[in-house]
Fold each of these.
Amino acid sequence: MVERVLATTEALALIELLKEKHGPVMFHQSGGCCDGSSPMCYPEGDLLLGDQDVCLGEIGGSPFYMHKNQYDYWKHTQIILDVVDGRGGMFSLEGVEGRRFLTRSRAFTPEELQELGLI
């Protein structure tokens, strides 16, 4: 089964650190506004989800969501959560760790698109 969202080894390590400090966490791919288009990490349940939020899957045992309008643009790509040095979004849990989550992506192959039912 093709996964819509993955995480690098470095991202998984940071997720584990955040879970040790804060308990279960969740992700929501920001669509802009205050923190740009960064993947945001929150204590699980702190961000109220609506019926327009799509769960793309789990990374490190943590759900990853995106608003449906944004998903419509990204549905042909696999999201790859990565980590880079520097301060992240002011609302995201990793901000104080000196690292920040970053979204990378790659286009699905025609075979993957077919498996996902997108063609």
Amino acid sequence: MTTNKYAQCRFIGYAIPTGPSQDKLILSKYLVGNYLGATDVLQDLSARIAILKNAVDTAKQALPADEDTQLVNNIFMAPEFYFHGPLGPYIYRHVEEDPAELALKLLAKTFNPQDYPNWTFVFGTMISAKVANIDAVFQSPAVQMRKRLVESLALNAEAEFGNARSVTEQILNNTITDLRVNPAVEVRDRALVFSNLGLQLPGKSQAHQSLTTEKYFLSPIDFVLFETNNQDVITEEMVAYPYIDLSDGDVKKHVHDSHAIFSQNFGENNVPSTVNYGIEICLDHDDARLRKNMNRENLPITNTTLQIQLVPSSGSVIMQQCVVVGANGFVFNVDGWCALDNSVTPQADNVAGVQSVYTNYTSTQNGTQYSAHTQLAQVKNPAQGCDPNKYPADFQFLSTENVISLNVSEPILEVGSFSDYFAGGYGSIQIYGGNIPYDLLSEEIR
């Protein structure tokens, strides 16, 4: 007997600024500011999860009350860098102290199957670093030299003009590139994925409740260049991300490997039987990670069968040449650092070649403006081949009439206040397919 469980979906984005406090760009490229968060990792995780629950419940209360939860998959996403501590990355000494594992256990308890039966979550990303003695790292002459050198070059470049500024800025760029060859700290930037509908490794039948995927491309604004309060933090010139071997494609083989493609399997008698997802974190999307590496693995995943492409980011948008889902597939971006324009209501427009619907969030706190956005596109004709320079996708028109934008109220926390964790305000919830969910398989445009 054929069934149609979860043949529809909606996309829910939490547009909340996740960058450092008092953040600003210098030299139009590098970020300075200071990180917020609790020094106790459990306290920090608990507070950020409570803030997430407040946002998710804001969305949940706005959904149709009489909706059949077996028909619609609510796909919720938060931005890159949602989970971080006052040093930037969470620092831990031993493998068994990995904060990602602790966070996923707490998230499973919070977002239980009784209250969230038909929800699939990407809880933004978490940055963390396994370091035996972080104080020794900060106090080492090599790290002290890095900080003095980079800050001096940056401030001197800011003070110069014309050719002198260009030369000094180029010296700074080259210096950071050289320092990253021998990083002081290896940082992991991982997306935390959780679903009460089950998650599968493609080609495998076992269902998992959670998994992670990882970023490889380090952006100049992923970490602060220096800290404005003169405190020890993990900075741009100290770090590198782990290398990810994509020579055999990007399909996940283990729940906590670094690869990006996973599935939800609803049974062979269901339509759809399988929904395939791919996650690209920020600059990995700009680098066409999924498109360049599709079809390399010996598994039935091609760019005609990837239905949902998710991009949690901090300073990115949907890039036309990097879209890899098939016809009628969706690309969803939730960003914690920039707005797409000056609008404050949902918009339908062409953004860098991508016809999409999007919504911005902006907030001014203590004289600093913070921004975030969400963006959704649906493919009409998919990209052809793996070369991002050729034959990109084009897109269908999506109406703003099916988008709900909601302000998020102040959450109640057991310890501290919201401003101890996020600098840019409570954020907003944007629900795409709010009243009428999108059909994953139909040609009909809703």
Amino acid sequence: MMAKILIVDDAAFMRMMLKDILTKGGHDVVGEAENGLVAIQKYQELKPDIVTMDITMPEMEGVEAVKEIRKKDANAKIVMCSAMGQQGMVVQAIQAGAKDFIVKPFQGDRVLDAIRRAI
């Protein structure tokens, strides 16, 4: 099933890598955001099926953004993206309502599996 996806990451390179994996996997990347504040606005505007959310970002961290998005939409499907060694943050993100997490550097199969499970 094709999903409309919003990619949230402060690193343009990471957004580009994810977009490449997702579009090759048959999904539609409907938008990108560089921090949690922008992510909340774009989520309301674009109404994506799924959000990939980085944890560590300027302006507003990923876990805070997850909480804010879930306040507005309890059914929001969010998959966290974390670098190695952020396990504590991942646990917080799951408690905040994230459906799954993927670890950087991204592996195409794992990204697509997480998206499939979140749908």
Amino acid sequence: MNIQIFGTKKCNDTKKAERFFKERGIKYQFIDMKEKGMSKGELTSVASSNGGIMNMIDPDAKDKDAVALLQYIADEDKLEKLLENQQIIKTPVVRNGKQSTLGYQPDVWKKWE
């Protein structure tokens, strides 16, 4: 398994995801989205395995303007806007190769083992 956890240090769900993998002795790489976001390729891969870009957006994100903007711009522009505004992505984003999840989903991660 090659686990990557994208999240922020303040996010409780990200902390719970880290604890989940630590408790099972599974090595993972933590990427702080405040310091270094996802690449275009990573974002595209996560979006395709989770039903599209709009499913990646956290409706409760602090930046309400960015959330609203993504709902109204053309589909071909959404990826670029999300790359610029990664603070509105649901966290944690947990990747295992081509598989990925949004939010805290231990039931899915157990199936990866």
